[in-house]
Backbone:
């Protein structure tokens, strides 16, 4: 499985960005959970949003609810993260990740099997 993120940039506070994650080689299990994580310098990798590939069920971290939207285009095998009203505390490397099965109850990085290389988002 290969995941390639793109779309990260340096932006001003209040701006919007849309991240993309191109997925290839994914086995079509009954369900896969696809997620976005982020990691700031010196910080832990934290879950931002997740979506069930078949169910479409969505989950968000409290810190991004109402500002970020996770979506997918299964025909294009692409995962997206629309980020609005960006804040300096959103500055981080953003990673997409996948795990077979239902989305874990907690967005914990150790529950995910496949990872991209990340795309940097900087908000100033």
Residues:
């Amino acid at each position: 499985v290969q995941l390639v993120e793109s779309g990260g940039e340096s932006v001003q506070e209040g701006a919007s960005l849309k991240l993309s994650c191109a997925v290839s080689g994914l086995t079509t299990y009954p369900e896969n959970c696809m997620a976005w994580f982020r990691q700031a310098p010196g910080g832990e990798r934290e879950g931002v949003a997740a979506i069930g590939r078949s169910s479409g069920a969505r989950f968000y971290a409290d810190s991004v609810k109402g500002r970020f939207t996770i979506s997918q285009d299964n025909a294009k095998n692409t995962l997206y993260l629309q980020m609005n009203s960006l804040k300096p505390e959103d500055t981080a490397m953003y990673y997409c990740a996948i795990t077979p099965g239902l989305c874990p109850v907690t967005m914990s990085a150790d529950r995910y099997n496949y990872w991209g290389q990340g795309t940097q988002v900087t908000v100033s």
Remarks:
- The first strand starts at residue 2 and ends at 6.
